[in-house]
Amino acid sequence: MLQIRDIIWRLLFIGCAAAIQVEITPTQGEISVGESKFFLCEVVGDAKDIDWYAPSGEKILPNRPDIFVSRSDETTSTLTIYHANVDSAGIYKCVAKNGDKEAQATVQVKIFQKITFESAPSPQEFSEGDDAEIVCDVISSPPPTLIWKHKGSKIQFAKDVRFKILDNGHLQIRSIKKTDEGMYNCEARVMARGEIDFRMIKVVVNVLPTIRARQSEVNATADVGSSALLACDADGFPEPTVTWAHNNVVLETGDKYSLNEDGSELVIKDVAKVDEGEYTCIAKNKAGEKAEEVSLNVFVQPKITYLNNQTAAEFDEQVTLTCEASGDPTPTISWSFENRVFAEGQQSLDRNIVVRSHARVSSLTLKNVQFTYAGQYLCTAGNSIGQDDQHMYLEVRYSPKIQGPVATYTWEGNAANISCEVEAHPGASVLWFRDGLQLPSANMTNTKIYNTPTASHLEVTPDSQYEFGSYNCTATNAMGTESKEFLLIQADVPSSPEIQGVEPFSSTAVVVFGEPDSMGGVPIIRYRVEWRLPGQQWTGREYDADDATSRITIAGLKPETTYEVKMSAINGKGESESCPASTFKTEPVLSSAIPPTLAATTLARIGEPSAPKLEVKVQKGGNSLKVNWIKQDDGGSPIMYYLVRYKARHASHWKPEIRIPNASEYVVLSGLDWNTEYEVHVVAVNQQGKSEPGTVSFRTATEPTTVPDAVDGGSGLGTGAIVGILIVVFFLLLVGVDVTCYFLNKCGLLMCIAVNFCGKAGPGAKSKDIEEGKAAFTKDESKEPIVEVRTEEEPVPNQEGGGPTEPNETTPLTEPDGKTVKDDSTKGETEVKNATAEVKTVPSEAPQANGNESKA
C-alpha cells in the first residue's frame, strides 16, 4: 500500500518538474570594467516566454544599447552586457513561463576595475633644480599598490630623501639633477587577483643654458670697409638656440649682419660709427634663457675736415692757419713746415710762432710775417688708429730780395755772366744799369741780358779795362723795389801750386801737392807736371783738375834714377809760373845680382805691380757693365796685360778669364743676368808676376717689362718677318758671291752648270796656282788684329833672373815726351779665354815705358 502511494507521489513530482526547468550558464560572472560578457539561459520543458530581469527588478527590454537580450530558439535566451561598468553589477534573473507554470534562475554579476594607466606620459621633462613630479595615474578595483623603479632597481626612499611617493601615487624628486635623468618604471599590483602591469616613463632633465662671450669688448675701425666679429659660446640641454639683439631688435642675416649656422658668431659688415654700442647674445632652450652683453667700440680714423690756403703780406702783424679734424679717439694735430715740426705751445725763441689746440681744432699763428714763411705747410692729424695728412699753401707777398755772388771774374775777350737772383712775390721785373744808364746801351754793345723766372743774367764780354767795374741790378714788383751792385773783376793767372812731397816707385812716382794760394778769380782747370833727369830737357803732361785732385802719378820713369819735378796751375786766364823743382829718386828693381835668399823678399816688395783701382758704370740696357781701372805702381816692370774674371755672387764658379792688353783701360761685360749681384776681379801682370786683384761688386738692373724698340716707336716687325727678310738677303748675297766667283775665278754653282750642261772647260792648274798665291798674299797683307785664344794660363816669362825682355812687335814704344810711337807693324794682342762677355779696349793716355827704360 505504501509502495503504491510512493510511486504515485513520485510520478506527480516528475510530471511537475518535467514541465519547466531553468538553468543559467555560467552560474556566476566577473566582468572587468569595459569588457563585455554574455549569459545563456536554458529552459527544460515547454516555455512560452523567457525573460531577463535587471538587478533593480526591472525587466530588460530588447535592443538596449548596454544590455542586449536575444532568444535564439524555444528553449534558450542570451543576456549580453556590453562594455560593463560599475552600474552593471548585481543579480540578474531569468524567468520562464508557460501559462500558469513558471520557473526561474539567477546569476550574480560582479564588475571589477582592471589595472588601468590613465596618465603615464613619456617622456616627461623637467628643468634642473626644479622639484619634479613624475605623473603615473593608475586605477583598479581594489586600488593597486604602486612600486617605482629606476635603472632596474626599486627606489629606496629611505636612502635618498629627495625621492617621495605622493598621495596620488606620483613620484616626486626634489631638486632634480642631470644625473637623475633616465627611464623610470611605474608598476601597479592588485594582490587579490594577482594582477600586475607597468609603464616605462622616460625622464628628461633640461639644463639652463650657460653663455660666455669670447670677448667682452670688440674694437673696430669705421669707414674703412672692415667687418667686426662678435662671438659667444653657449652650452645647455637641450642645445640652446643663440640669437643676437641690438637696441632690443633681434638681428637677422642680411646686408648688414651675417650669422653662422649655430648663431654663435655675428659679423657686422662695413662698420660705421652708428654701429657702436651693446650687443646681447641670447641663449635659449626648454630650461630657460641666459643673455650676455658684448660691447662694440668703433674707432674712427682721423680725417682733416677743414684746411684752407692763406695769403699774407710781409711784415703783417700775424697770420693764423687753422686745421680741423675728426676722429675717435680725438686726434692730436701737429704742423710741419720744411724740416720743422710744430706741436702745442711756442715754437720759436722770438715767440713769433705759436701753436694752440682745442678739441679737434689746431691753429698755427705766425707773427711778424716774413717772406721766408711762404710755402707749403703740412697738417697731420693722428690717433691710435691712423693719421691723415693734408697740405695748405701760405702765400706771402713781399718785395724783391736780390741774391747771388757779388764778384764775378773774367778777362778781356772772355764772356762772363753776372747773375742777379731775385726772390719776389708777385714776380718782379729786373733792369740792369751801368753808370746810371740802362743796359744794353749804345755805349756798351758787348752786353746781353738773359732772364729766367728766378734770375736775370747779364752777359758781358769785356774789350777793355772800361767794361770792368760795378753793375747795378734793380728788381721791382707791386710790393716794392730793391737794388744791388755787382762787380765785374779782371781775373789773373793763378799762383804756383806747392809740391808737398813725392812718393817714388821703380817706374812711377806720386806727386803730392797743395793747390795754389790764389786761383786768380777763376777755377783751376788743369795742372802741368814736368820732370827730367838733372840737366836734360823737361818732359811734361797736363792733368785735368777737380776739387779732390791733390795727387798725380807720373809714369815711364827709370828705376833707381834721380829726377827733378815741378808743377804749374792753369785757369781760363792762363798758366801760372812753375813752382820750385823737387828732387826724388826712383826705387830699384830686382836684378840677377841679388842673392837667391834675398830675391824672394825683394820680388815680393817691389817686383809685382800694385792692384789696379776699379770703377763701375752700368751701360745702357741695364745688363751690361763697363769696368774701368786706374793703373797703380807697375813694380818697376811695364804692365804686360790685365786678367779679368767675374761671377755672380751666388755662383760657385768664375766665368772664363779674359786677357786684356796693357794699353786698355776698361772692359765691357755684356749679356749679364738681370737683377743679379756680380763680383769682378782685375789683376795686373808684369815680368815679375801678378798683382793682388782689384775687386768691385755691383748689381745689374731689374729686367724691363717692355721692349725698348716698341716703346721708342720701332717698325713693329714681327719675328717671322725679320727672319724672312734675313733669309732673302742671305739668298741674294749667295747669288751675288756665286756670280762673282763665276766671272773672276771660274768657279761656283754657275761654273758647275756651265761645265756640266754647256760644255765649258773648267779652270786649269794655272788658275789654281794663281788662286793659291792670291790667297797667301791676302793672308799676309791682312790688317786684322791678331787674337790669341788661351786654353790655359800661360806662365809669365822671366828672362835672366826676372829681368825685362826686349821690346817686341806687341810692346808699345814711347818717346821721351811720354807719347806712344805709332807703328803700323805693331799690333795689340788680346787674349781671351772662352769669354762670353764683350770686351772693348781703349788705348791709355798715360805714357808707357819702353823696353830699354824698364831695364835697370
Automatic annotation (TrEMBL):
* Alphabetical keyword list: Cell adhesion, Cell membrane, Disulfide bond, Glycoprotein, Immunoglobulin domain, Membrane, Repeat, Signal, Transmembrane, Transmembrane helix
Tell me the CDD domains matching this sequence: FN3 (cd00063), Ig (cd00096)
The Gene Ontology CC terms held by the record are:
neuron projection; plasma membrane
> Boundaries of each Ig-like domain copy?
20-110, 113-197, 209-297, 302-395, 400-487
Stretches with biased composition (Polar residues): 847-856
What organism is recorded for this protein? Scophthalmus maximus (Turbot)
Record Pfam families: fn3, I-set, Ig_3
- Residue ranges spanning the membrane: these are 721-744
Record GO biological process: cell adhesion
Start-end of Basic and acidic residues biased regions = 776-793, 816-832
Q: What is this protein called?
A: Neural cell adhesion molecule 1a
User: What Gene3D superfamilies does the record point to?
Assistant: Immunoglobulins
Stretches for region Disordered: 776-856
- Ranges of Low complexity compositional bias? 805-815
**Lipid bilayer topology:** Single-pass membrane protein
Annotated gene: ncam1a
Q: Which PROSITE patterns match?
A: FN3, IG_LIKE
InterPro entries attached to this UniProt entry: FN3_dom, FN3_sf, Ig-like_dom, Ig-like_dom_sf, Ig-like_fold, Ig_I-set, Ig_sub, Ig_sub2
> Where would I find the Fibronectin type-III domain in this sequence?
493-589, 608-705
**Organism domain of life:** Eukaryota
Q: Does the keyword Coiled coil apply?
A: no
- Localization terms from the record: Cell membrane
* PANTHER family per UniProt: CTX-RELATED TYPE I TRANSMEMBRANE PROTEIN, NEURAL CELL ADHESION MOLECULE 1
Q: Does the keyword DNA-binding apply?
A: no
Primary location class:
membrane
Q: Where is the signal peptide?
A: 1-19
